[in-house]
Amino acid sequence: MKKRILITGLAFVSAISFGQKKEIKKAERALKSNDYSEALSYLSEAEPMLSAADNEMKAQFYAARGKAILATAGSDFNKLKKAANAFSEAISLNPSIENQLYDQLQNLRASLVNGAIKDQKAENFKLASDKLYASYMVTKKDTSDLYFAAGNAVNGKDYDAALKYYQMLLDVNYSGATKSFVATDKETGEVIPFETEQSRNLALKTGQYIKPEIKISESRKGEILRNMTLIYIERGETEKAKALIKTARAENPDDVFLMRADADMSYKMGDHERYNQLMEQIVATDPNNPELYFNLGISNDQLGNKDKALQYYKKALELRPDYEGALINVAAVKLSGEDAIVEEMNSLGTSAADNRRYEELKEIRKNAYQEALPYLEKAHEINPTNANVLTYLMNIYSQLAEDDKYKAAKAKLDALQNKG
Predict the structure, then answer these.
(1) CA-based end-to-end distance of the chain
(2) Mean predicted confidence (pLDDT) in 143-163
(3) Which of 156, 184, 241, 243 is the S-S candidate for 211 at Cβ 3.0 to 4.6 Å?
């Protein structure tokens, strides 16, 4: 009796498998005829029997479903996500099916990535991040998609997602470093990248190119750890931030990105002395970077080291004369003593000594204005739409009794405000 029940059961499973296979085949034929609705209908009929199928047949089912959904998805993210999930399931059940899905996977990734680029431009960072993450999760091979998903999550302030994605990148030992094959054009001196080493070598044979090189891009690991550290600090999880940066720096003590992460953490935590020490080390690795000197200027300014701050701002301007921020900050340092001067002037009496001191302070204030003025005028020349600079200029022109310049600056400011 038991034997007969077993045989009947096997026959029943076999019948289900046959029926299921038949529906999947019908769906695949419908796909070839571009009848996607019919394909999905056949797959719906096969789905209730799916649990009895082997992995190969299940993979066929999900592959067919992914194809049918993708074909009608357009830019609809919900449909693209369903297609991505179907393909991912198919590949996990039968990895060899990935080769058969090559064209569909490429089309799906293009749709998701191009959609993410549009969302990013529109500052819809959350949706951009979701699309890039969906793209990565299909085969889990395009790690750059996960990296950019994390970046968009940061921009969208979705810090939970950003930390999750960054940790996933660390778990697969992602560095983001890429190898490129380049050669120099003899006529222009321009360094030209080639898609492959073979195409570069063929170009060399033409005689047009010289100096073949292999260039390795900078690792993104330090940047990832730096961003994770800053997220922890933003969330008030300072101990996690400290532990992460300590471990990372122990592994890579000379990594400049990690030095920056450590410096940023120190700055955020108010440890400006340590920040300065680290920034000095960073400057030594990149002495021609005006941004580094500018940042050192800011930190010294906040520590009250005005002379040193001025040195760093001026160094930044040596390297980049049109650095608007540095120009404004030099002027700000020059004018930083004004409040104390005005306070002392207002506290003076009417004695002869007080009158002399008043005139001295008045002259010091005037000199400060005259020293700051060229920097603000240059900043305005670089960026005529900066209303704050125009306001400063109006105040200085007024104090120096330069009425025509005051009126011109006021007219520009009024025009800006009316335009806004």
Answers:
(1) 89
(2) 95
(3) 184
Residue 324's nearest CA partner among 383, 393, 365 is 383
- The enclosing domain of 349 has a CATH number of 1.25.40.10
The tokens of 178 are what? 């890429």
Quick one: pLDDT at residue 212?
87
pLDDT, position 317: 97
Q: Is the predicted pLDDT of residue 19 greater than 80, yes or no?
A: no
Instruction: Tell me the torsion sign for CA atoms 56, 58, 62, 67.
Output: positive
How far is residue 23's CA from residue 43's CA, in Å, rounded to a whole number? 6
Question: How far does CA 74 lie from the centroid of its chain?
Answer: 27
**Is 152 domain-assigned?**
yes
Q: Are residues 350 and 312 in the same domain?
A: yes
Residue 329 in contact with residue 301, Cβ under 8 Å?
yes
Average the pLDDT over 356-383 and give the result: 93
- SS3 assignment, position 179: strand
Query: Which of 145, 171, 197 is the endpoint of a domain?
Result: 171
Q: Confidence class of residue 1 from pLDDT cuts 50, 70 and 90?
A: very low
How many domains, the chain?
3
What are the residues facing 215 on neighbouring strands? Answer: 180
> With left for phi above 0 and alpha for psi between -120 and 50, is residue 207 left, alpha or beta?
left
pLDDT of residue 20: 58
Higher pLDDT, 24 or 122: 122
**DSSP string computed for 208-221:** SEEEEEEEEPPPSH
Helices 338-347, 352-382: inter-axial angle, 10-degree rounding: 150
CA–CA dist 149, 116 (Å, integer)? 9
Strand partners, 181: 194, 214
